């Protein structure tokens, strides 16, 4: 399973789609803008295994904010939303207020729709992400993807019931491993974050997301077979939440 993948952005997306459909039980294909979502949905069809969600990545908030209304209406048809969130790093900070407005609108819409599952980007902005989540009770389920903030923000997220998607690239760094050691084990799912996330120079593929189990086994000091079962169980619980959302609540 792969709970955060930009499958449409691999250079050979159609082949990756075909191979992922063969080899992976479930892929959450997150998109970066409402227009990209519309285009991707025409080329790569959603299936039992490939779930495609509308999103508006905080890195493109400046350019794509005009598409917010489109996103809000797309959200009505889908139980999952992503990629959304905030990015407080120096490169994207100039549009931070705009990012916040967009994320707030997404959360408010999620509340109005009875809850959504959100794949959330929180680079250098976890504190603000968590504050906004807290101020929108009933937003649904938050999956914090590639969480890189402090242990204290992580523990706050854990208390708030957030999930975490963790990939091979994340646990390649010492800080990533430290944070993974503190995560609630029953709310961790694998992700590739490909093609952006790379290990030894190569993009992580959707079918490689599950390989995070071997590193988690070392970090958590439990046998790899147990981690595999745990991740599978977590994954089916989360896909269940997505499936329930689809039938409308
Ligand atoms: Zn991403």
Automatic annotation (TrEMBL):
Q: Where are the transmembrane segments?
A: none
Q: Answer whether the UniProt record assigns the keyword Cell division to this protein.
A: no
A GO molecular function term, named singly, is: hydrolase activity
For this UniProt record, give its keywords in alphabetical order, as a comma-separated list.
Hydrolase, Metal-binding
Which Pfam families does the UniProt record give? TatD_DNase (PF01026)
Top-level taxon of the source organism: Bacteria
Q: Where is the signal peptide?
A: none
Q: Which family does it belong to?
A: Belongs to the metallo-dependent hydrolases superfamily. TatD-type hydrolase family.
Q: What is this protein called?
A: TatD family hydrolase
What organism is recorded for this protein? Spongiibacter thalassae
């Amino acid at each position: 399973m792969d709970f955060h993948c930009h499958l449409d952005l691999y250079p050979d997306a159609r082949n990756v789609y075909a191979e992922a459909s063969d080899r992976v039980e479930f892929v959450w294909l997150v998109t970066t803008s409402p227009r990209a979502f519309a285009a991707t949905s025409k080329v790569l069809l959603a299936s039992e295994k490939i779930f495609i969600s509308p999103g508006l990545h905080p890195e493109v908030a400046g350019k794509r904010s005009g598409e917010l209304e489109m996103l809000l209406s797309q959200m009505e048809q889908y139980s999952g939303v992503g990629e959304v969130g905030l990015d407080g790093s120096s490169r994207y900070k100039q549009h931070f207020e705009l990012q916040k407005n967009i994320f707030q609108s997404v959360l408010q819409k999620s509340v109005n729709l009875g809850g959504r599952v959100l794949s959330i980007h929180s680079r250098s902005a976890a504190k603000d992400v968590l504050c906004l989540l807290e101020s929108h009770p009933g937003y649904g389920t938050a999956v914090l993807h590639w969480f890189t903030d402090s242990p204290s923000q992580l523990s706050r997220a854990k208390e708030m019931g957030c999930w975490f998607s963790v990939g091979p690239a994340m646990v390649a760094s010492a800080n990533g491993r430290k944070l993974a050691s503190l995560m609630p084990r029953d709310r961790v799912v694998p992700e590739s974050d490909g093609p952006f996330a790379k290990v030894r120079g190569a993009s992580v593929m959707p079918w490689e997301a599950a390989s995070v189990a071997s590193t988690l086994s070392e970090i958590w000091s439990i046998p790899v077979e147990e981690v595999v079962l745990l991740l599978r169980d977590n994954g089916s619980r989360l896909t269940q939440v997505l499936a329930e959302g689809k039938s409308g609540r």
